[in-house]
Amino acid sequence: MSITTTQVAIIGGGPSGLLLSQLLHRRGIETVVFEKHTRDYVLGRIRAGVLEHGFADLMREAGCGERMDAEGEIHEGIYIAHQGRMDRVDLAKHTGGDTVVVYGQTEVTRDLYQARADMGGVVVHQAEDVALHDLKSTTPYLTYSKDGTSHRVNCDYIIGADGFHGPSRKAIPSDVLREYEKVYPFGWLGVLSETKPVSPELIYARHDRGFALCSMRSQVLSRYYIQVPITDNVDGWSDDAFWAELKSRLPADVAAGLETGPSIEKSIAPLRSFVAEPMRYGNLFLAGDAAHIVPPTGAKGLNSAASDIYYLYHGLLDHYLKDDDAGLEGYSETALARVWKAQRFSWWMTNLLHRFPDSAEVDRRFQQTDLDYLFSSDAALASLAENYVGLPY
Ligand code: RFL
Ligand code: PHB
Prior knowledge:
binds 8-demethyl-8-dimethylamino-flavin-adenine-dinucleotide; eight-stranded mixed β-sheet; single chain; FAD/NAD(P)-binding domain; 21 strands; six-stranded mixed β-sheet; binds P-hydroxybenzoic acid; 2 domains
């Protein structure tokens, strides 16, 4: 078995793990990232598209903002379509000028991988059987195997940024870990297509047939979603059927302007709300999807991961550069306070806009009234807007 040492061992080479590694390396703190899959596999996952302004700032601080600033689009508003009409939420107006950046998670991850490579950062791909040990001691370590050889990595801290299915959360004893979960009775069928987006700003649509979302990656690449029963199989959805269903859920004039084309990616994502507490156990710190999942309706998944990284980054900086452990000691509580607010917002947006299979007529009237109230109240619009652009770190 080979034995190596680093200061911070990071499990997971998704956006959370790569961003933390990049930020720490720039401040002279040594990290190694251990990723189960190949880089191409990680980049092949089509996921988030909307970055809060705070996350965009963190990318700039990591020295990874150049392409995002050149190619990403700043959005000052979103539309909500309901009852055949389109109402706009002016994000900038209701937040005193804050906006979001439309820039795909694939591109964020690609830029982070490039930055890691440019700085000579170590990312071990195809690390198998990663296991965590002695988390309560001051000498934690992890083990893994690669190409048939076993390795041990001694470190000060282990960061569990290995997504919902990774081993880190499971390494916390069940009598310590508390999990909160809500599984929604539907999923999102997503299609990526090389077509011009139907609208310059995102459209979230509530319709009796179910929710729909019109998003984009660029002016030549569109991303659309429709709510489907969780029992549906992606093979059962032809492109034609998808476009027809999407159009049926949009206001007629919007549907008339929708450019369709072959899908270049099509997948169904389940919707769940999930939080694991605490986010720290000894010298293990969880971050991102490893600790929490939101339904994608509020665009908060990647952004909640980024806020964890913000707190961890500052906690680790204070530890290594100022010998101050207050940030790390308070990490779980601080991160969870913001996580729960993003959870609440995502749950609220999901309830507002989806068709629930067991809902009664009265529930649908409440939903519609929630929307009517929203667009009649500057206070309600301001609340949506401040959550959508991202609460302060
Ligand atoms: P990731 O991206 O899952 O990365 C975790 C990494 O850990 C690796 N891993 C392991 N590595 C080593 N050993 C093991 N045993 C391992 N097990 C797993 C995995 O291979 C992976 O590379 O978690 P991270 O970094 O915390 O990032 C979280 C985000 O990916 C996620 O929250 C967002 O994609 C959620 N999300 C959205 N978030 C937003 O903020 N805005 C959006 O608009 C948005 N849209 C979405 C979304 C997620 C979606 N899906 C499919 C879940 C839309 C969709 C459809
Ligand atoms: C996306 O573009 O993939 C996207 C945008 C907004 C959301 C969810 C997903 O709320």
